[in-house]
Structures are given as C-alpha cells and as structure tokens.
Design brief:
With 452 residues, the protein is α+β, with helices and mostly antiparallel strands. It has 16 helices and 16 strands. It folds into 3 domains: 175 residues, Uridine Diphospho-n-acetylenolpyruvylglucosamine Reductase, domain 3; 89 residues, no CATH class; 114 residues, Alpha-Beta Plaits, CATH 3.30.70.2520. 44% of the residues are buried.
C-alpha cells in the first residue's frame, strides 16, 4: 500500500535529524548495510538515516511518487496493482529507484525507453550541505546526477512516469549463428520496434558461444494461455536454448533474471536439481547470492578452493559495458579470445532524450546511437598476476577504443586524467562545488576507483 505524504514527511524529518547529528565536517554518507555494488564501500556506521524513505508515496495514473530507497520489488508491486510498471525495471529486485538513477540501470525496455533516469519528471536530492533540493530535467544538478553514485547527494523522492501493461509477456527466442547478424537484427528492431511483423515491447539476449546467440523478443499481451514458472526447478536462461516461444506473467517476466541472478547461482550449486529441491524458493533470489559473494570475498573461499584444485589464481571480472551496436561483433570476438567468459548478457539501449549530442554529461552516450549493454559476471583464472586485475584493465581499454562506456558499479582502474575525460569530471566538479561546497560527499573518482 502507498505510504502517503504524511509518512513521507516523517521520513524526511528523520533524515534531517540524522544529518544535524553528524559531527561538524564529517563525511556525509548513508547509514545502510545493503548494496548492489561490486566494489569496496565503507563499513556502515553513523550516517544519514534513510529508514523512512523506502516506500511508494502514491500512484496516480501514469505517474508515481516514490521514495529514493524504495526497491523495484516494492515499486513494481505497487504499480502492478494499478496495471502499470515503470518504463524501465532493472533486472534485480533489490535495486533501489534512487540507486538506479544515480548509478544507472538498464533492462529489456531500454531499447525504446532509455535508462531509468530518463523517465524521472522531478526529484528531491539531499546534498552534501544538508539542503533538500527539488530538481527537474534541464537543471545542472538533475542532468549531472545520473552516474554520480552519491557524489552529488542522494534522491529522497522521485516523480516517475509509468506505462500501462497487460497481464502477460509472450516471448520469442530467436537464434543467431554469429554476432554480426545479431547486431544487424538489433539495429533493425530498435528502429522499427518489430520483428517479422510482430511488435516488440522488450528486447534482450544471451551469447552462449561465438556461434550460438539469442535475442528474446517480448510482446505485452492479454491473450490467455499457459505460463512458465522459472522460480521452481526450471532455470530461465536455459530455456532460451530449449524452446522458441514462451509465455510469462508480466510480474515473472520482470523478475525472470532474479531467481538465479542470471546464471550466477550455478556457482553456489543452486541449479543442481537435488540442491534446488531443498533450497527454499524464498531464498532463491539475487540478494541472497550477493550475501554469499560477500562471504566469499571476506574469507577468500573461492581462492582456497582454486588452490586446492590446482587452478591458477582467479580474477573477479564483474562488468557491464555499453558498446555501439556497429562494434558489438568486434568486441565479442576480442572478448572470447582475450577474456573467455560465457554466457554474456546482451541488452540493447538507445537514449530517450534527443536533441543534444551527449545529453547526460556524467555518462556521455551519444543521442541517436544504438548501444548494446554487454554484461559478464564471474571469475577468470589468470594466475599470479590476478591481483593486478589484467583482464579488467584490458576490458576498460577495449571499451574505450570501440567508443563505448563502462558502468561504475563494479571496480574501475582508470587513471584520474582518463577518468575525468571519459566521465566529464570537470562538469561534475562544478556542480558538486555548488551543492557540496564543504566537500563532505566523497568525490566520484575516489569512490569508484580510489587512490591506487
């Protein structure tokens, strides 16, 4: 149930009180333990109390007022009750709306609706100075906020667009034998919004090998019919290879990747039929796996198992990158040869905002250009050089060479000068100086790269 405005104001008051209680000049950050980041972050401690900012305020037709720390799981629950969904719903349930806006998000509707921040009509941001600023598209703070990762402040309220949605998603899994042909199909679908005469409402894919790649075309529909369930014994990503058509409820389609964290649950044995039968369904979700990863990183479990098995030392390679569709085949060919990790996720994207060459300065994708997000998550056994992260550094260099961009939710290794060039650090610094004059919020470079 929506919280209503009175409850929201109480949450804001609690936030203001926690800011006032910070020691003079102390760093400003969130007092929260959960995170979807795959890079280091400070241990939780004294910080901004956002415990009262985790819900939906109201849903009114095609617009929703949402608190910044509301997860998409709770947001979708509230909007589906009205037959609507956000224009872009990132694929993992515990991603927050504010997190997707300041840290970017993407999903299968991004080929037509862009990124989550592009459907935000207005938002309130608590800045480093403690002020809560209302900002709209076209304002310096609003336009610099995407990809700022809390270096400009934190969203406390967002007014977002919604779209009507029917009960089901009818799926077609289309196989391609090479990346170049798939890339051509992506370009055509983005331009025409259809394939083989049928409307396409959602578009993503998986590359299993250089000669086995799939695009999944989703069409919203109210046509009745049987639906599949991938929250039980069946694993969604395997179905792409096993059937050409499918049908899911819209709810299950939105969360099709969460049950197995794409395919990453296999690292924990959760896809083994016997393990799956005894692993409670309520614990088959991405945030549970994330906690297991955190334990692995804390105690070095994976490294110990590699040593015991005689495998070379592993390098964690967890990245999402945007590659221009015209260079996708080139990137995947290089990736297979020099990194060697499969499957990888493919999610086409075109910015919604038009009329400017690079309308979002902090993540300067080019307006009118189709990109494909390539997501790859796992460990590559590289040997004793693993601590220097050679594969991650090579990926960063290749993405830049091909005119692409890299998401910053995971570790980054850029030198400061290159980082500022790629992510318009000068512009970000100017906006930060206005809203955080005492520099109490961590600088973006220091936050995502650190002083290496």
């Amino acid at each position: 149930m929506p919280l209503g405005w009175d409850e929201h104001e109480r949450g804001v008051a609690r936030l203001r009180e926690s800011y006032a209680a910070l020691p003079p000049g102390a760093p400003v950050r969130l007092a929260k333990r959960t995170s979807n980041l795959f890079r280091g972050r400070p241990e939780p401690g004294t910080g901004l109390d956002v415990s009262g900012l985790q819900g939906v305020i109201e849903v009114d037709g095609d617009v929703a007022e949402v608190q910044g720390m509301c997860t998409y799981e709770h947001l979708v629950e509230a909007t589906l009750a009205h037959g609507r969904i956000p224009l872009v719903v990132p694929q993992l349930k515990t991603i927050t709306l504010g997190g997707a806006v300041t840290g970017l998000g993407i999903e299968s509707t991004s080929f037509r609706s862009g990124l989550p921040h592009e459907s935000v009509l207005e938002m309130d941001v608590v800045t480093g100075s403690g002020e809560i600023v209302t900002t709209k598209p076209g304002d310096d703070l609003f336009d610099a906020f995407p990809n700022s990762y809390g270096s400009l402040g934190y969203a406390t309220r967002l007014r977002i667009e919604l779209e009507p949605v029917p009960a089901y998603a009818a799926l077609r899994h289309v196989r391609f034998d090479d990346a170049a042909t798939l890339a051509g199909a992506v370009a055509r679908i983005v331009d025409e919004r259809e394939w083989a005469g049928e409307r396409v409402d959602g578009l993503d894919g998986v590359a299993f090998s250089p000669d086995e790649l799939y695009l999944t075309l989703a069409r919203w529909t109210d046509e009745p019919g049987p639906t599949s369930d991938y929250t039980g014994q069946q694993v969604y990503y395997r179905s792409l290879q096993q059937r050409t058509t499918d049908r899911l409820t819209v709810h299950d389609y939105l969360w099709r990747w969460d049950t197995d964290w794409f395919w990453c649950s296999r690292a924990f044995g959760a896809q083994h039929p016997l393990v799956r039968r005894v692993w409670p369904r309520r614990l088959r979700r991405s945030d549970v796996y994330w906690k297991l990863v955190a334990l692995d990183r804390r105690f070095g479990i994976g490294d110990r198992l590699d040593r015991r098995a005689g495998r070379p030392q592993g390098e964690r390679v967890v990245q999402d990158v945007e590659i221009p569709v015209a260079r996708l085949a080139e990137f995947l060919e290089w990736f297979d040869r020099d990194v060697g990790m499969r499957p990888v996720w493919l999610c086409p994207l075109r910015l919604r905002r038009q009329g400017e060459d690079r309308p979002w300065p902090g993540y300067p994708l080019t307006s009118g250009t189709t990109y494909v997000n390539v997501g790859f998550w796992g460990v590559v056994n590289v040997g004793p050089e693993a601590p220097s992260s050679p594969r991650n550094r090579a990926i960063e260099a290749k993405v830049t060479e091909l005119g692409g961009h890299k998401s910053l939710y995971s570790e980054a290794f850029y030198e400061r000068e290159e980082f500022d060039r790629l992510y318009d650090g000068a512009h970000l610094a100017r906006v930060k100086a206005v809203h955080d004059p005492d520099d109490r919020l961590t600088d973006l470079y220091d936050k995502v790269v650190g002083r290496r």
